[in-house]
Amino acid sequence: MPINSGVISDYEISNNITLNRYACIVFWLTLRERCRELSLNRLLGGDKNPESILSWLIVLPIKMFLHKLSIVDAIDFRSDTVTWPTIEMREAMMKARVGDDVYGEDPTVNELEKLAAEKLGKENALFVASGTMGNLTAVLSHAGRGELAIVGTDGHIFTSEAGGMAAVGGIIPHPLPTDYEGKMSLAEIEAALMPEDPHYARARLILLENTYGARSGAPQPLSYLASIRTLADKNRLRVHLDGARLFNASAALNVGVDQIAGYVDSVSFCLSKGLCAPVGSLLCGSEEFIGEARRMRKILGGAMRQAGIMAAAGIIALKEMTERISEDHANARLLTTGLASLSGIRIDSEAVKTNIIFFELDRDDYMTAQYVVDRLKTDFNILVGVAGERRFRTLTHYWVGPSEIQQLIEALKYVLAGKA
Ligand SMILES: Cc1ncc(COP(=O)(O)O)c(C=O)c1O
Predict the structure, then answer these.
(1) Tens digits of per-residue pLDDT, 322-340?
(2) How far is the centre of ligand 1, averaged over its atoms, from the C-alpha of 131 (Å)?
(3) Among 123, 136, 230, 294, which one is most buried in terms of CB atoms within 10 A?
């Protein structure tokens, strides 16, 4: 028998149920986020003296017990991609005005794209699902089959994006070595440019990355970007910047993102890393370039419909989260100092300029990075990345501050003191 008695329609009933569900979800998420802010992690990790007997005899065992029961969230240093959206983002997502973005009718996506283009000083922007999609869309828009793209051997586009440019676009990556800041040598780039001849593939594109992930998130100086621009103009090449962490570069160099973007034809940056949005990147460039990129995004299956739900979080990311990114850098320095003070750990403190920290085990016994990481996880619910046999990778972000750093240092001390 239909529920509709004529007094309340099916539509109203389902709408009421939906609203109630929304209310419950928001209540639950708010509660959870507030609990996280006051979490046991923080209370137990607070400002206590790590050397104190109280800490070793009482707090540490309690913490380990709670972690075993999974009562508290893991403290996650593996990446800044693990960041949860903030409660403001979740609320904005729930309330977002949406439309069909393939028709250009999603007001929230349109607002985000406009905001991004303005911030970067470019004519237009395109909302894409990920940093990888932003880079691939850009490469496909700049270059064609059989053409060369010059890229760092340890650049993210070359090492970690599944060879998309070759697999999808028939574009040939031409990898060149990089220095301690991820810079390619201008002479080597020039040497890679072959004369116009039917035998040779035409170079079309230079791919940059700023900050440079494989080099401890090094920010690349404007002088380097300027020389690349000059070289590119001289040789009629385009320049795309993988700016997954563009706002980290801007904070570290103390220059506007528009100044960095001014040297390149296109730039993609991620909302879903240090800026905390759950999904999405923006690709920015000229009106003509974005027109082409829109077509390429469609080819990749990346044209979305009511994407405003995600763009709403992106707007908060751009308006509220960019200024605080320097806090992550200060925390990275704090962590670096803590790590440098541990015996059995080697770290190049000078290399840490933004939020990425690599460090190594300075001992030659049974202890490998994997062993340490496993112990940190099982005994302390702390997650750290393995970057080699004895090498670790950690990143600071919105959800790991001084208290979590303190806990990591204590936990590492405990694990490193272990006997086989
Ligand atoms: C430098 C850099 N570029 C691009 C990406 C790709 O971003 P996504 O994971 O959103 O595809 C990442 C991801 O970590 C990155 O670190």
Answers:
(1) 999 999 999 999 999 999 9
(2) 5
(3) 136
Q: Is residue 116 domain-shared with residue 189, that is, in the same domain?
A: yes
If you take atom 14 of ligand 1, which residue's CA is the nearest one? 81
Q: What is the domain extent for residue 100?
A: 87-320
Residue 98 lies in a domain: yes
Final residue before a domain boundary, out of 320, 355, 384: 320
**Residue 46 predicted with pLDDT over 50:** no
Q: What is the pLDDT of residue 113?
A: 98
From atom 4 of ligand 1, which residue's Cα is the shortest distance away? 131
Best of 78, 80, 156, 209 for a ligand 1 pocket test (most atoms within 8 Å of beta carbon): 156
Atom nearest to 270 CA in ligand 1: 10
What average pLDDT is seen over the chain? 89
In which band, very low, low, confident or very high, does the pLDDT at 40 lie, cut at 50, 70 and 90? very low
Q: Tell how strand 356-361 and strand 345-346 pair up.
A: antiparallel
Q: Atom 13, ligand 1: which residue's CA is nearest?
A: 131
User: DSSP string covering 119-178, please?
Assistant: HHT-SEEEEES-HHHHHHHHHHHH--TT-EEEEETT-HHHHSSTTHHHHHH-PEEEEE-B
CA angle 188, 192, 193 (to 5 degrees): 125
> What share of the chain in percent tops pLDDT 90?
82
For a substitution probing ligand 1, which of 211, 270, 271, 275 has the most ligand atoms within 8 Å of its CB? Answer: 270
**Does 182 contact ligand 1 (Cβ within 6 A)?**
no
Q: Are residues 43 and 189 in the same domain?
A: no
Whether residue 240 is predicted with pLDDT greater than 60 in this model: the reply is yes
SS3 category, 398: coil
Q: Is residue 78 part of a domain?
A: no
* pLDDT tens per residue across span 186-197: 999 999 999 999
CATH no. for residue 345?
Answer: 3.90.1150.10
Is residue 213 within 6 Å of ligand 1 at its C-beta? yes
The structural domain count of the chain equals 2
* CATH code, domain carrying 135: 3.40.640.10
**Domain-embedded: residue 142:** yes
343-391 pLDDT, tens per residue? 999 999 999 999 999 999 999 899 999 999 999 999 999 999 999 999 9
Question: Which pLDDT band, with edges at 50, 70 and 90, does 47 fall under?
Answer: very low
Q: 136 with 146: CB under 8 angstroms?
A: no
For residues 138 and 199, state if they share a domain: yes
